[in-house]
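Quick start: what a row looks like.
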Amino acid sequence: MYHIALCDDEEKVLDQIEDYLAGYQDVKQTFEYEIERFFSAEELLKQLSQEQFVPDLLLLDIYLSGKTGIEAAERIREQGLGMPIVFLTTSTEHALKAYGVDAIQYLVKPLDKKRFFHAMDSAVGQLEKIQESYVVLKVPGGVRQIQSNDIVYCESQKNYQILYLTAGEYRVRMTAGKLWEVLERFPQFGRCGRSYILNMHHIISMEREEILMDDGNMIYIPRNKAAEFKKVYFSYYFDYRDKAGTSR
């Protein structure tokens, strides 16, 4: 199920987009979605900043009262959100700025169903890639999309989890169990006792109860959990090597 945000200050345009999406679903029957409408950039940005709301796809008008769609997209990218953006506009003069915020399509009004369907094909293709590789978590100040392989390991501290990344770290308020529910769909993650979730792609070596990560940190695990985790790690290691055609 994809969550799609529509932002345009003309209700008739929002109605037209909804009609086109319904038509697209008739053609792509596996495409399931739900919609949330916004009539201004300010309304959209407020929702993104105050609630745990992250659309998978944003269809955004450029000419809005108040902040423009370009300004809204710049704020969205500053927040670290990488969802596909399709711009809707009556003029091509902002095309370069649109691609400056990594917009995947730039549709000129009046909208045409054929061009709209082509834009949706591009968006869905990108969404499938994002779902395969990104983790979406609520962090202080908003919601963050994190490339799964940028997570080196996670450490539990009561009701908080510390995510150590290849560049920086995040502290998120959630239990270790809830974080594991988010990460377990990625084959490179293994849970190591109650305190750690490790990205096995970042493991350099394992010696008894010591695991060296490629960021230089050493993880110490309980003796009774070491043998269990080694089985998980070597299972992943050989499976990854066979699929990649190489070894670490």
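That is the whole record. The first strand starts at residue 2 and ends at 7. Confidence is low (pLDDT under 50) at residues 244-248.
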